[in-house]
Amino acid sequence: MRLLTPWGLLAAAAALPLVLWYLLRPRRHRVVVGSTFLWRAVERPATAATPWQRFRGDATFWLVLLALLALAVALARPAVPVPVALGDHTILVLDASGSMLADEDGVTRAELARREATELTSTLAPGQEVSVVEGGPRARIVLSGSTDAREVARALGTIAPRHAPSDLADAFTLATSLQRPGQRTVVHLLTDAMVSADAMALAPPGLTVSAVGTDRPNVAITRITSAPLGSGEHQVLVQVRSFAQTAVTGRLALDVDGRTVLQQALRLAPRATEDVVVTVPAVAGDTGAPLGARLELDADVTGQVPDALPFDDTASTVLAENRDLRVLLAGPGNTFLQAALRAVPGLTVESAPVVPDTLTGVDLLVVDRVDAPASLPVPTLLVAPTRWPDDVSAIGDAELPALTYQSTDHPLLADVDLTGLAVATTRVLEAPQLTVLASAPDAGLLYAGRVGDAPAVALPFDLLASDLPLRPAWPLLVANTTRWLTGGAAGTAAVPAGSVVALPSPAGTTGIVATAPDGHEVRVDPGAPTLQVDLVGPWQLAYAGTEGPVAAPTTLSVTAALEEGDLARARPEPGTPAAGGEPTLGEGLQALAWPLVLAALVLLLVEWGWSHGGRQWLHARRGARLARVRRALDDEDVASHGQVPS
């Protein structure tokens, strides 16, 4: 056993005043007298108390002394070594994804993880350190190298799960950065899902994975879109997915601008998906009005609603605008470009041999093999222009470039596969404000970003000198490009939580502020306008520096991520080491102070009971026993002498 604060034993010195009090305590002998009449004439008080009596410790003394010694030892914080999964430095990684908000009999999975982590670190020994990493959509270090269990508990209490999937690879990278040479480091991950292979490849040494939660039913809205039909009507698609093991019934309600305009009955088979397509009439709401969908589920045979995750029961978007966007195609003529642009709903395509001096009313400019403006006033698609804007320089040519890189997470290349792209020759660009999305070893083949104040996409090669217009990916690339440059015109669709959204940045924008559904603000750099959305609901976008109506969306709708709704997915076994084998056990300390404090309280309660009735009860019991003995002796005398003694 160890004493963590040995100076606490000094409190045992309080036993000396206790002994003195018992020595000096007045002791008055009780004497039965017939009357107090003779004491009435006494002029001064008299006492029969005898000070400085010989020490005679009774039961109350020993009870109080034992309680005092127990409290003194408790102040010294005794502890015994116990085997625990702690190291010199223990790093706690807590999953803060959306599924950790699932209800587990009145508490969330996040709370269960916090309790398990708190219990694990309650046995910290002197010199042992604990760090805490929040494994959310954006991992962060909550606490670094603390030796105080109370500080660790406070740090664990600040972890707040978001609605998006967690980035455990990023969390593992942060955990690895916290490791120090010479320390035996143990990393604990508390999660409710299996760790992906990509994340495990970055797992730090000494990782142990612990699962929280049990299989729970859930029903979620995983998609919502709105598209204009003309005459003010809108077609709305809502995807509802059941992750329950039994059939689920209920209703899907649609609200426009806060008013319920439609209710659709639902009956979902176990783990089934239903796409609900309805038409919202023109009288229900104006273009641009908020559109919300919500689930109203019936209770099952047990009386419980089969839905353990509340935040994915709602989704929102806006009623899409019916206005078509005006596209100006400047160039000598390109059948492939014209056909691809006209295939995109919501676009009106006009042609011109060169870029005109004024672009009033133009929403999107396409420059094909003609001079581009020195400064781009509107969103622009640049296709091998004969003169590049001022912020872009052509520094050479590359013959027969072979594609070796293609971005996998940019919306321009969503569902687009450029593998095997054949290009005769391409210009080599120097464009600091543009990001390369596809490239050969010696030249970029697709760029996106900003040129001056306007968003721009650049293809530095002649389409007619490549096979790109002949590939199935061509119309998808054009549709993605127009949507990214303009913000979309044909309809509105919500994005899943956790997505990194590329925001349009209208000309003249000096700043973008995104307000999340919970009210917190995120400032977005207009030079690299990307935003990671981690909460379900409408995000409001504000563009600084623009005048008049903004040709960009002001509301970004976010729905629940599909993978977060499945609350019955596979989970790791409790205490599973990442690399197999048994979990590494270190030495912790189990505190004994509270049991000693409890023992002291029990002793004091016994002392109080003894002094307030226990002694009298014992004396009465002794008197009753003596009376019984005397009666027995009297009975013997009567039997032997034949008379009752006087």
How would you portray this structure in words?
The chain is built from nine helices and 36 strands. The chain is α+β, with helices and mostly antiparallel strands. The protein is elongated and about 145 Å long. The longest helix is centred in the C-terminal third of the chain and has 49 residues, at 593-641.
Shape: elongated
What's the N-to-C terminus distance? 68 Å
Q: How is the largest sheet built, in terms of strand order?
A: 18-17-19-20-26-25-24-22
Helix content: 10-25%
| Number of DSSP helical runs | 9
Q: How would you summarize the topology of this molecule?
A:
Layout: E1 2-3, H1 15-24, H2 59-75, E2 78-84, E3 89-95, E4 103-104, E5 107-108, H3 109-121, E6 129-135, E7 140-146, H4 149-157, H5 168-178, E8 185-191, H6 197-200, E9 207-211, E10 219-230, E11 233-242, E12 248-256, E13 259-268, E14 273-280, E15 290-297, E16 314-318, E17 325-330, H7 335-342, E18 347-352, E19 364-368, E20 380-383, E21 393-399, E22 405-406, E23 425-430, E24 434-440, E25 443-451, E26 454-459, H8 473-486, E27 492-493, E28 495-496, E29 500-502, E30 511-515, E31 521-524, E32 530-532, E33 537-544, E34 555-559, E35 576-577, E36 586-591, H9 593-641
Parallel strand pairs: 3-6, 3-8, 8-9, 17-18, 17-19, 19-20, 20-26, 28-34
Antiparallel strand pairs: 1-2, 2-36, 4-5, 6-7, 9-35, 10-11, 10-27, 11-14, 12-13, 12-15, 15-16, 21-23, 22-24, 24-25, 25-26, 29-32, 30-31, 30-33, 33-34
Helix pairs in contact: 1-2, 2-9, 3-4
